[in-house]
């Protein structure tokens, strides 16, 4: 183990640049997968005839495929039909598709967890289905989704390491290059990579647990999460 040789200023800068790429890819994929997952989850929750079944088929297909296969498909198979993506966007698109399918289930479950009595009360007070979704179901459901969403985002950040197979210059790719120069660099370089991943993921994990605790306390509080005056909301929308 050669810590001094592995952690020269140039090597450290190279590794940190790789970690920066990891964070950028993760951030872009988190935003896009959340948008995609929310849209798919809403479609499945709304049970739109035909479209709901098609969405379920797409989601279940993606969820049951290895992420590595999706990465290879986006990077190497899509060009065969004229869709050429850079390595960066191939990684982002693959992560977005895979994580979006996972997030859609979180969204659907979160919306379905809302007390049906609240939904019926909102509808009977004059709210339309769209108004009920917007003013009753989404506000309550989204709060309950936050902890599992954070956990899914942690998984997404870890999954970025699979992009090493298409030579995305993220942390693991940079680590491979550094310790490829000298076998004595393997342990210190991988240790640094582990520390960087752990620091970010553990911070997100603590956030997830805190949010879960807060949501549990909210559920135990009588009346918590109930929409205020749905009838008034309906009048305001009229």
From TrEMBL:
Residues 222-238 have a biased composition (Low complexity). Keywords: Amino-acid transport, Cell membrane, Membrane, Transmembrane, Transmembrane helix, Transport. CDD domains: TM_PBP2. One of its GO terms (molecular function) is transmembrane transporter activity. GO terms for biological process: amino acid transport. It is a multi-pass membrane protein. Residues 19-208 form the ABC transmembrane type-1 domain. Its main location: membrane. Residues 215-238 are annotated as: Disordered. The chain crosses the membrane at residues 20-43, 50-74, 86-107, 185-204. NCBIfam families: HEQRo_perm_3TM. This is Amino acid ABC transporter permease. It comes from Paenibacillus albicereus.
